[in-house]
Each structure stands twice: as C-alpha cells, then as structure tokens.
Amino acid sequence: IVPCYNEEEVIKVFYKETKKVLNNISTYTFRFIFIDDGSGDRTLEYIKDLAKEDSEVKYLSFSRNFGKEAGMYAGLKHSTADYAVIMDADLQHPPELLPKMIEEIRNGHDCCAARRVKRRGNEPFRNLFSKAYYKISNKLTNVELVQGAVDYRIMTRQMVEAVIELSEVQRFSKGIFEWVGFDTKWISYKDVDRTIGKTKWSFFGLFKYGIGGITAFSVVPLQIVTVMGFLISLFAFFYIAITLVRTFIYGIEVPGYVTTLSAVLFLGGIIELSIGIL
Ligand code: UDP
Ligand code: MG
Questions:
Q1: pTM of the prediction?
Q2: What are the residue ranges in the chain where pLDDT is below 50?
C-alpha cells in the first residue's frame, strides 16, 4: 500500500527497486496498491503505465488531496491479502527490509514495523521537538509511541481488520496501530535521505498533526481544562467572599470594578469547567 502525492519523479524508480526485492521472494505473491492522493503532477499517469505493464499493480485515485492518512486508510480498506505492507513512495522506507519483515511475520508476530534510528538531517530544532513530542504524548495518552517509528510496517489480515474498524476522519495511524494492540516486532534501520522529490510536510503541518494525535488518544487536555475551571471558580468564590467582608467593614473603594471582575472570573471558571465536562 503506497500513498503517493506528487511523486512523479520517484514513482517508477520506487516500483523498480521494490520489484527487484520482491522478485527474490518466491513464497508469496505481491500486489501493489498505489493511492494517488489528488496529485497535481503526472503521478497518476505513471501509476496507470505501471498498471498496464503489471496486472498486480492496482490503484486508487482521490478526487483531491486528502493527506497521507486518508491514503493509508483507503489502501488498507481495499486490500484483500493475508498480509498488508504500508510504505512510502519516496524510497525512504527501504524495500530491502521487506524480506526481514516477512520473516518476522512468519515467526508468529502479528506485525513488524520499522523505526529509523537516526533522525534525518541536521535540523536540531526539529529533532528536539520530535523528542519532546514523543515524551509528552506518551505521558498524556494511553498509547505508547515508539521513538523514530515510521509508517512502514507489515500487518496480518486480522490486524488490518482491527485498524480499518476505526473509521475516524481525523486519523493518527501511529496511535491507532498501537491502540489496536497485537504483537509488534520493531526493527531498526538507518535513516535514508530523500534523494528524489521533496517532503510534503511543513513544520506547522506536523505540529497540527501532532496535536491531533494527542487529543485523539487522551482526555488529559480536557481534564486540565476542567481542573483549571474549577480552580478559577474557587478562587473567584473566595475573592468575592473576602471582598464582601472588606466592603462591609471599610466601604466601597472603587465603585463597579469588583463586581465586574468577580463576574468575569467566576463565570469564566464555570464556563471552562462546563467545557471540560462536555
Ligand atoms: N503523501 C500522501 N499525501 C500527502 C502527503 C504525502 O499520500 O498529502 C505520501 C507521499 O507521497 C509519500 C508519503 O506520503 O509517499 C510520505 O510523504 P513525505 O515523504 O512527504 O513525508 P516524510 O517522509 O517527509 O515524513
Ligand atoms: Mg519521505
């Protein structure tokens, strides 16, 4: 299952390189499912070329760009094989790992997934952010994300069925793969630079995706809101009580502002508390 978005430069190279590896595995037959994620270049055209040459090349084409998550989901939905492999089209997921992955499945694991051991490139800021993200996410959510995990994995039919049963629109597959359980074997590989084409992810895009990953698997952010609302209301309550007493003793200092402040604080707290509960 290969999600592709504007990969005209690499798609045929990907097919050739992967095919080379697969040709050496005689115990299974393989089918490619390419998902053209609304590409604006000739990706779809090239996929169609491949499908003409090879009857085991199938493809889906989206009406617009829906993102890689949608591509992976559609691919899994349309797969019928005993095992499904998800991989990127840009050869950053080395096809040479496939025999090892298949071997692990044969050893009885439900899934074999790849993690890259060195973060790509010399982008200290991103690396730091990525490390921190995994730490925070693992603290806040009940799914344990593996540092360096990529969306390159082989799964049994059983696991695929479990994954596609979760049909949410805002998908965060890294979390879903963990959430469904199953016995996953992790194998490490040296990070490969993208030599053809360029990444589709901006820092901000990744950031939004990451926040989605946490909120999809954790109620902790909501609990924080609830507790904060409670604390603010409590503070407001005491503030009002103390001010009332002071007013009775010393009289009004500046007319109006205490009432306004109290109302804003108290209601603000109540509203936040309510949002948390909702
Ligand atoms: N991709 C996709 N839809 C998108 C963006 C990316 O299907 O909207 C595909 C892309 O063609 C590639 C894979 O997802 O096969 C990973 O994308 P990319 O290499 O840009 O991500 P990175 O490797 O930088 O994380
Ligand atoms: Mg890539």
A1: 0.82
A2: none
